Amino acid sequence: MKRSPRRLSIASTAICLLTHDPKIDDPALMVALKADCFYIGALGSRKTHARRIERMRAQGFDEAALARIHAPIGLDIGAVSPAEIAVSIIGEIVASLRKKPLRTESAAA
User: Fold this and answer.
1) Distances in whole angstroms, Cα of residue 108 to Cα of each of 19, 45, 82
2) Which is it for the CA torsion 43, 46, 50, 53, positive or negative?
3) Residue 25 to residues 17, 49, 63, 99, Cα–Cα distance (Å)
4) DSSP, residue by residue, 62-104
5) How many domains are contained in the chain?
6) Measured between alpha carbons, how far is 82 from 73 in angstroms, rounded to an integer?
7) Domain assignment of residue 98, yes or no
8) Which candidate, 100, 92, 96, 97, places its Cα nearest to that of 72?
9) Residue 18: CATH number of its domain
């Protein structure tokens, strides 16, 4: 018996899509976009993300929903190794949780 995923309703939930496989990531992304989680991040290049956005538009998601996706995932700290990428992702999640703008965003305002 196949169980359907539960609707997420916890505002303290962060979702990270890390597989590089739309067959796995897209269903999870659709659940996340319908939920009220505070953070949705997706691994992949800007080109990969553009294709992801097109697939989500085709599923009926509007621009406001799509703007919630952080992609490429993580802070731009020049991370190369898996450990550095993990630190950049956690940093972005914490910044989103605390709703503190990054210094570069503050300087641009």
Assistant:
1) 33, 24, 30
2) positive
3) 6, 12, 19, 25
4) -HHHHTTEESS-S--S---SHHHHHHHHHHHHHHHHHTPPPHH
5) 1
6) 13
7) yes
8) 92
9) 3.40.50.720
Q: What contacts 63, CB < 8 A, 6 or more positions away? A: none
- Report if residue 1 sits inside a domain: no
Element at 39 (helix H, strand E): strand 39-42
Average pLDDT, the chain: 87
- What residues make up the domain containing 76? 14-104
Is residue 90 domain-resident? yes
The residue with tokens 């991370």 is 79
More confidently predicted of 70 and 10: 70
The DSSP code for 54 is H
Per-residue pLDDT, 12: 79
Q: Tokens in use for 93?
A: 């999640």
Cis check for the bond before 72: say yes or no (omega within 30 of 0).
yes
Q: What's this model's pTM, rounded to 2 decimal places?
A: 0.80
